[in-house]
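A quick word before the example. In earlier lectures we treated sequence and structure as two separate objects. From today on, think of them as two lines of the same record. Here is tyrosine--tRNA ligase written that way.
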Amino acid sequence: MSLDERFVTMRSIGLGSIDEEEELRVLLEKKVAPICYVWCDPSPSVHISQGIMMVLNVNKMVKAGCRVKILMADWFAHIHNRFGGDLNDIRTIGCYMIEVWKAAGLELNGVEFVWLSDEINRRPHEYWTLVMDVARNNTLGRMIRCWDKTFEYALTVYGMPADPYDRPDVVATMIFEPCMQCAAVLLPKADIWLLSMDHDEDLEEVRELTREYCKDMKGGNRPIILSHNKLPNLIQDDEFGNIGDPAWAIFMEDGEQSLSVKVRKAFCPGKVAQGNPCLEYIRHIVFPWFGHCEVPGKEEKSGGSRTFHKVEELISDFESGALHSAEVKRALEEALKKIMKTLGAHFAGNSKAKHLAKAMCEYMI
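And the structure line, produced from the sequence above:
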Protein backbone atom coordinates (compact mmCIF):
# COMPACT_ATOMS: atom_id res chain seq x y z
CA MET A 1 0.00 0.00 0.00
CA SER A 2 1.13 3.55 -0.70
CA LEU A 3 1.52 6.09 2.09
CA ASP A 4 -1.75 7.75 1.10
CA GLU A 5 -3.58 4.42 1.10
CA ARG A 6 -2.19 3.52 4.51
CA PHE A 7 -3.18 6.92 5.87
CA VAL A 8 -6.73 6.70 4.51
CA THR A 9 -7.11 3.19 5.93
CA MET A 10 -5.96 4.21 9.40
CA ARG A 11 -7.86 7.50 9.29
CA SER A 12 -11.09 5.61 8.58
CA ILE A 13 -10.93 4.09 12.07
CA GLY A 14 -11.22 7.57 13.57
CA LEU A 15 -8.95 10.12 15.21
CA GLY A 16 -9.48 11.99 18.44
CA SER A 17 -8.48 15.39 17.03
CA ILE A 18 -7.57 17.17 13.80
CA ASP A 19 -4.03 17.76 15.11
CA GLU A 20 -3.45 14.01 15.16
CA GLU A 21 -4.09 13.69 11.41
CA GLU A 22 -0.73 15.23 10.57
CA GLU A 23 0.93 13.25 13.37
CA LEU A 24 -0.51 10.05 11.92
CA ARG A 25 0.73 10.85 8.42
CA VAL A 26 4.22 11.67 9.72
CA LEU A 27 4.29 8.46 11.75
CA LEU A 28 3.27 6.30 8.79
CA GLU A 29 5.86 8.02 6.61
CA LYS A 30 8.57 7.41 9.20
CA LYS A 31 7.62 3.87 10.22
CA VAL A 32 6.71 1.04 7.87
CA ALA A 33 5.37 -1.09 10.73
CA PRO A 34 4.22 1.10 13.64
CA ILE A 35 3.23 -0.67 16.84
CA CYS A 36 -0.49 -0.43 17.57
CA TYR A 37 -2.09 -1.48 20.84
CA VAL A 38 -5.79 -2.21 21.26
CA TRP A 39 -7.38 -2.02 24.72
CA CYS A 40 -9.86 -4.74 25.65
CA ASP A 41 -11.78 -5.27 28.89
CA PRO A 42 -12.49 -8.99 29.40
CA SER A 43 -16.21 -9.76 29.34
CA PRO A 44 -18.15 -13.03 28.99
CA SER A 45 -20.86 -11.11 27.14
CA VAL A 46 -19.30 -9.56 24.03
CA HIS A 47 -20.99 -6.49 22.56
CA ILE A 48 -21.09 -6.60 18.76
CA SER A 49 -18.88 -3.51 18.58
CA GLN A 50 -16.23 -5.35 20.57
CA GLY A 51 -16.73 -8.51 18.57
CA ILE A 52 -17.18 -7.32 14.97
CA MET A 53 -16.14 -3.65 14.79
CA MET A 54 -12.95 -4.40 16.67
CA VAL A 55 -12.00 -7.14 14.21
CA LEU A 56 -12.77 -4.90 11.24
CA ASN A 57 -10.60 -2.11 12.67
CA VAL A 58 -7.73 -4.38 13.71
CA ASN A 59 -7.70 -5.91 10.23
CA LYS A 60 -7.45 -2.39 8.80
CA MET A 61 -4.40 -1.79 10.99
CA VAL A 62 -2.77 -5.02 9.81
CA LYS A 63 -3.56 -4.13 6.20
CA ALA A 64 -1.84 -0.77 6.70
CA GLY A 65 1.31 -2.57 7.83
CA CYS A 66 0.95 -2.13 11.59
CA ARG A 67 2.12 -4.60 14.22
CA VAL A 68 -0.98 -4.98 16.36
CA LYS A 69 -1.04 -6.08 19.99
CA ILE A 70 -4.39 -6.62 21.68
CA LEU A 71 -3.97 -5.88 25.37
CA MET A 72 -6.35 -7.70 27.69
CA ALA A 73 -6.90 -5.39 30.67
CA ASP A 74 -7.16 -8.24 33.15
CA TRP A 75 -5.42 -6.22 35.88
CA PHE A 76 -8.28 -3.73 36.10
CA ALA A 77 -10.90 -6.47 36.12
CA HIS A 78 -8.92 -7.94 39.03
CA ILE A 79 -8.75 -4.74 41.10
CA HIS A 80 -12.46 -4.17 40.46
CA ASN A 81 -13.10 -7.66 41.82
CA ARG A 82 -14.97 -8.57 38.65
CA PHE A 83 -15.66 -12.28 38.30
CA GLY A 84 -14.44 -12.74 41.87
CA GLY A 85 -11.16 -10.99 41.12
CA ASP A 86 -9.57 -14.29 40.12
CA LEU A 87 -6.97 -13.63 37.40
CA ASN A 88 -7.24 -17.21 36.14
CA ASP A 89 -10.98 -16.85 35.61
CA ILE A 90 -10.47 -13.45 34.00
CA ARG A 91 -7.90 -14.96 31.65
CA THR A 92 -10.36 -17.72 30.73
CA ILE A 93 -12.85 -15.02 29.76
CA GLY A 94 -10.15 -13.31 27.71
CA CYS A 95 -9.41 -16.57 25.91
CA TYR A 96 -13.10 -16.88 25.05
CA MET A 97 -13.02 -13.40 23.52
CA ILE A 98 -10.02 -14.40 21.43
CA GLU A 99 -12.08 -17.28 20.03
CA VAL A 100 -14.87 -14.82 19.19
CA TRP A 101 -12.39 -12.67 17.25
CA LYS A 102 -11.02 -15.71 15.44
CA ALA A 103 -14.55 -16.64 14.44
CA ALA A 104 -15.12 -13.10 13.18
CA GLY A 105 -12.10 -13.31 10.88
CA LEU A 106 -9.33 -11.61 12.85
CA GLU A 107 -6.09 -11.45 10.83
CA LEU A 108 -4.07 -13.62 13.21
CA ASN A 109 -0.78 -13.37 11.32
CA GLY A 110 -0.42 -9.71 12.20
CA VAL A 111 -1.76 -9.79 15.76
CA GLU A 112 -0.31 -10.64 19.17
CA PHE A 113 -2.26 -11.00 22.42
CA VAL A 114 -0.78 -9.59 25.62
CA TRP A 115 -2.05 -9.45 29.20
CA LEU A 116 -1.75 -6.27 31.23
CA SER A 117 -1.00 -8.16 34.44
CA ASP A 118 2.01 -9.78 32.73
CA GLU A 119 3.24 -6.42 31.44
CA ILE A 120 3.01 -4.83 34.89
CA ASN A 121 4.69 -7.80 36.59
CA ARG A 122 7.56 -7.64 34.12
CA ARG A 123 8.15 -3.93 34.69
CA PRO A 124 6.64 -3.02 38.08
CA HIS A 125 9.13 -0.25 38.87
CA GLU A 126 8.58 1.43 35.50
CA TYR A 127 4.81 1.13 35.73
CA TRP A 128 4.37 2.46 39.26
CA THR A 129 6.86 5.26 38.66
CA LEU A 130 4.76 6.29 35.68
CA VAL A 131 1.56 6.05 37.74
CA MET A 132 3.02 8.38 40.36
CA ASP A 133 4.28 10.81 37.73
CA VAL A 134 0.81 11.04 36.18
CA ALA A 135 -0.63 11.59 39.67
CA ARG A 136 2.00 14.22 40.51
CA ASN A 137 1.11 16.19 37.38
CA ASN A 138 -2.63 16.22 38.05
CA THR A 139 -4.72 17.73 40.81
CA LEU A 140 -6.96 15.76 43.13
CA GLY A 141 -9.87 17.71 41.68
CA ARG A 142 -9.01 16.42 38.20
CA MET A 143 -9.03 12.83 39.47
CA ILE A 144 -12.34 13.33 41.26
CA ARG A 145 -13.87 14.78 38.08
CA CYS A 146 -12.70 11.70 36.17
CA TRP A 147 -14.27 9.44 38.74
CA ASP A 148 -17.45 11.53 39.03
CA LYS A 149 -18.10 11.13 35.30
CA THR A 150 -17.68 7.38 35.59
CA PHE A 151 -19.98 7.30 38.60
CA GLU A 152 -22.56 9.49 36.85
CA TYR A 153 -22.56 6.99 33.98
CA ALA A 154 -22.94 4.05 36.38
CA LEU A 155 -25.75 5.85 38.22
CA THR A 156 -27.63 6.43 34.97
CA VAL A 157 -27.09 2.93 33.67
CA TYR A 158 -27.33 0.78 36.77
CA GLY A 159 -29.50 2.93 39.02
CA MET A 160 -26.89 3.10 41.79
CA PRO A 161 -27.68 5.22 44.89
CA ALA A 162 -26.82 8.90 44.74
CA ASP A 163 -24.11 9.03 47.42
CA PRO A 164 -21.10 7.06 46.16
CA TYR A 165 -19.04 7.52 49.30
CA ASP A 166 -21.42 5.45 51.43
CA ARG A 167 -21.13 2.40 49.21
CA PRO A 168 -18.96 -0.42 50.62
CA ASP A 169 -17.79 -1.34 47.12
CA VAL A 170 -16.48 2.17 46.41
CA VAL A 171 -12.83 1.88 47.39
CA ALA A 172 -9.96 4.37 47.32
CA THR A 173 -8.37 2.79 44.24
CA MET A 174 -11.25 4.17 42.17
CA ILE A 175 -10.03 7.73 42.72
CA PHE A 176 -6.50 6.67 41.77
CA GLU A 177 -7.56 4.47 38.88
CA PRO A 178 -7.39 7.12 36.11
CA CYS A 179 -3.67 7.49 36.86
CA MET A 180 -3.21 3.72 36.69
CA GLN A 181 -5.11 3.48 33.41
CA CYS A 182 -3.17 6.37 31.90
CA ALA A 183 0.10 4.68 32.92
CA ALA A 184 -1.11 1.40 31.41
CA VAL A 185 -1.64 3.19 28.09
CA LEU A 186 1.83 4.76 28.19
CA LEU A 187 3.77 1.74 29.53
CA PRO A 188 4.05 -0.24 26.24
CA LYS A 189 5.46 2.80 24.37
CA ALA A 190 3.03 2.18 21.53
CA ASP A 191 2.92 4.36 18.43
CA ILE A 192 -0.87 4.11 18.18
CA TRP A 193 -3.62 3.15 20.61
CA LEU A 194 -7.18 2.08 19.91
CA LEU A 195 -8.98 2.17 23.21
CA SER A 196 -11.90 0.05 24.32
CA MET A 197 -14.43 -1.03 21.70
CA ASP A 198 -17.20 -1.36 24.25
CA HIS A 199 -19.30 1.29 26.00
CA ASP A 200 -17.11 1.96 29.06
CA GLU A 201 -17.33 5.71 29.54
CA ASP A 202 -14.39 5.87 31.96
CA LEU A 203 -11.95 5.30 29.10
CA GLU A 204 -13.16 8.53 27.52
CA GLU A 205 -11.69 10.29 30.53
CA VAL A 206 -8.51 8.23 30.34
CA ARG A 207 -8.14 9.25 26.70
CA GLU A 208 -8.33 12.92 27.63
CA LEU A 209 -6.08 12.50 30.66
CA THR A 210 -3.46 10.76 28.52
CA ARG A 211 -3.57 13.50 25.89
CA GLU A 212 -3.21 16.21 28.53
CA TYR A 213 -0.32 14.42 30.20
CA CYS A 214 1.47 13.85 26.89
CA LYS A 215 1.21 17.53 25.97
CA ASP A 216 3.44 18.35 28.94
CA MET A 217 5.93 15.57 28.25
CA LYS A 218 9.34 16.61 26.97
CA GLY A 219 10.49 13.88 24.61
CA GLY A 220 9.37 10.34 25.27
CA ASN A 221 6.63 8.48 23.51
CA ARG A 222 3.39 10.24 22.63
CA PRO A 223 0.94 7.70 21.22
CA ILE A 224 -1.68 8.66 18.68
CA ILE A 225 -5.03 7.67 20.14
CA LEU A 226 -7.68 6.47 17.72
CA SER A 227 -11.33 7.01 18.55
CA HIS A 228 -13.75 4.52 17.06
CA ASN A 229 -17.41 5.08 16.32
CA LYS A 230 -19.89 3.86 18.91
CA LEU A 231 -23.12 2.10 18.13
CA PRO A 232 -26.23 3.70 19.64
CA ASN A 233 -28.69 1.75 21.76
CA LEU A 234 -31.24 -0.24 19.82
CA ILE A 235 -34.04 0.75 22.16
CA GLN A 236 -35.28 4.31 22.54
CA ASP A 237 -34.01 5.49 25.90
CA ASP A 238 -32.05 8.26 27.54
CA GLU A 239 -28.46 9.13 26.68
CA PHE A 240 -26.97 5.93 28.01
CA GLY A 241 -29.88 3.54 28.02
CA ASN A 242 -30.35 0.73 30.47
CA ILE A 243 -27.57 -1.83 30.17
CA GLY A 244 -29.59 -4.05 32.47
CA ASP A 245 -32.08 -4.48 29.64
CA PRO A 246 -30.65 -7.08 27.22
CA ALA A 247 -32.57 -5.45 24.37
CA TRP A 248 -30.24 -2.43 24.33
CA ALA A 249 -27.70 -3.99 21.95
CA ILE A 250 -26.70 -7.04 19.94
CA PHE A 251 -24.25 -9.37 21.67
CA MET A 252 -22.17 -12.07 20.07
CA GLU A 253 -23.89 -14.67 22.25
CA ASP A 254 -27.39 -13.84 20.97
CA GLY A 255 -29.27 -16.72 19.40
CA GLU A 256 -31.30 -16.34 16.22
CA GLN A 257 -34.59 -15.85 18.06
CA SER A 258 -33.15 -13.29 20.46
CA LEU A 259 -31.54 -11.41 17.59
CA SER A 260 -34.83 -11.28 15.67
CA VAL A 261 -36.75 -9.95 18.67
CA LYS A 262 -34.15 -7.25 19.36
CA VAL A 263 -34.08 -5.97 15.79
CA ARG A 264 -37.86 -5.99 15.44
CA LYS A 265 -38.23 -4.01 18.67
CA ALA A 266 -35.43 -1.61 17.75
CA PHE A 267 -36.08 2.11 17.43
CA CYS A 268 -36.17 3.01 13.73
CA PRO A 269 -38.17 6.20 13.05
CA GLY A 270 -39.28 6.51 9.43
CA LYS A 271 -37.38 8.98 7.21
CA VAL A 272 -35.07 9.89 10.12
CA ALA A 273 -31.45 8.87 9.57
CA GLN A 274 -29.75 10.97 12.25
CA GLY A 275 -29.12 8.80 15.30
CA ASN A 276 -31.17 5.92 13.87
CA PRO A 277 -29.68 2.82 15.55
CA CYS A 278 -30.68 0.41 12.77
CA LEU A 279 -28.98 2.54 10.13
CA GLU A 280 -25.89 2.89 12.33
CA TYR A 281 -25.65 -0.88 12.66
CA ILE A 282 -25.94 -1.17 8.88
CA ARG A 283 -23.31 1.55 8.37
CA HIS A 284 -20.73 0.18 10.81
CA ILE A 285 -21.40 -3.57 10.73
CA VAL A 286 -23.24 -4.68 7.59
CA PHE A 287 -21.49 -2.62 4.91
CA PRO A 288 -17.93 -3.20 6.21
CA TRP A 289 -18.62 -6.94 6.57
CA PHE A 290 -20.39 -7.65 3.27
CA GLY A 291 -19.42 -4.65 1.15
CA HIS A 292 -23.11 -4.09 0.43
CA CYS A 293 -26.55 -4.33 2.02
CA GLU A 294 -29.34 -6.44 0.61
CA VAL A 295 -32.86 -5.31 1.43
CA PRO A 296 -35.38 -8.16 1.07
CA GLY A 297 -38.65 -7.51 -0.71
CA LYS A 298 -41.84 -6.98 1.25
CA GLU A 299 -42.91 -10.06 3.15
CA GLU A 300 -46.18 -10.40 1.29
CA LYS A 301 -44.41 -10.47 -2.06
CA SER A 302 -41.88 -12.85 -3.51
CA GLY A 303 -38.59 -11.46 -4.79
CA GLY A 304 -38.18 -7.73 -5.30
CA SER A 305 -35.06 -7.45 -3.16
CA ARG A 306 -32.70 -4.50 -3.62
CA THR A 307 -28.96 -4.37 -3.13
CA PHE A 308 -27.24 -1.17 -2.04
CA HIS A 309 -23.50 -0.85 -2.63
CA LYS A 310 -23.14 2.49 -0.87
CA VAL A 311 -24.55 3.38 2.52
CA GLU A 312 -25.28 6.91 1.27
CA GLU A 313 -27.68 5.51 -1.33
CA LEU A 314 -29.52 3.45 1.28
CA ILE A 315 -29.83 6.44 3.61
CA SER A 316 -31.05 8.66 0.78
CA ASP A 317 -33.81 6.20 -0.09
CA PHE A 318 -34.76 5.89 3.58
CA GLU A 319 -34.98 9.65 4.11
CA SER A 320 -37.08 10.04 0.97
CA GLY A 321 -39.51 7.36 2.10
CA ALA A 322 -38.64 4.99 -0.74
CA LEU A 323 -37.26 2.61 1.89
CA HIS A 324 -39.38 1.88 4.93
CA SER A 325 -38.42 1.13 8.52
CA ALA A 326 -39.72 -2.44 8.30
CA GLU A 327 -37.52 -3.07 5.25
CA VAL A 328 -34.45 -1.66 7.00
CA LYS A 329 -35.10 -3.90 9.99
CA ARG A 330 -35.49 -6.99 7.80
CA ALA A 331 -32.24 -6.14 6.00
CA LEU A 332 -30.41 -5.71 9.30
CA GLU A 333 -31.89 -8.87 10.79
CA GLU A 334 -30.96 -11.04 7.80
CA ALA A 335 -27.44 -9.62 7.62
CA LEU A 336 -26.79 -10.16 11.33
CA LYS A 337 -28.11 -13.72 11.12
CA LYS A 338 -25.62 -14.48 8.35
CA ILE A 339 -22.77 -13.05 10.42
CA MET A 340 -23.80 -14.97 13.53
CA LYS A 341 -24.09 -18.17 11.50
CA THR A 342 -20.45 -17.79 10.48
CA LEU A 343 -19.44 -17.36 14.11
CA GLY A 344 -21.59 -20.28 15.19
CA ALA A 345 -19.83 -22.57 12.73
CA HIS A 346 -16.47 -21.77 14.37
CA PHE A 347 -17.70 -22.65 17.85
CA ALA A 348 -19.53 -25.76 16.66
CA GLY A 349 -16.44 -27.13 14.93
CA ASN A 350 -13.80 -26.21 17.50
CA SER A 351 -13.79 -28.14 20.79
CA LYS A 352 -11.68 -25.54 22.63
CA ALA A 353 -13.95 -22.69 21.53
CA LYS A 354 -17.05 -24.70 22.40
CA HIS A 355 -15.70 -25.45 25.89
CA LEU A 356 -14.88 -21.78 26.52
CA ALA A 357 -18.32 -20.65 25.34
CA LYS A 358 -19.98 -23.11 27.69
CA ALA A 359 -17.79 -21.91 30.58
CA MET A 360 -18.99 -18.32 30.08
CA CYS A 361 -22.46 -19.17 31.41
CA GLU A 362 -21.24 -19.11 35.01
CA TYR A 363 -19.77 -15.62 34.57
CA MET A 364 -22.86 -14.03 33.03
CA ILE A 365 -24.42 -11.38 35.21
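Notice the following. The chain is about 55% helix and 10% strand. We will return to this example when we discuss secondary structure assignment.
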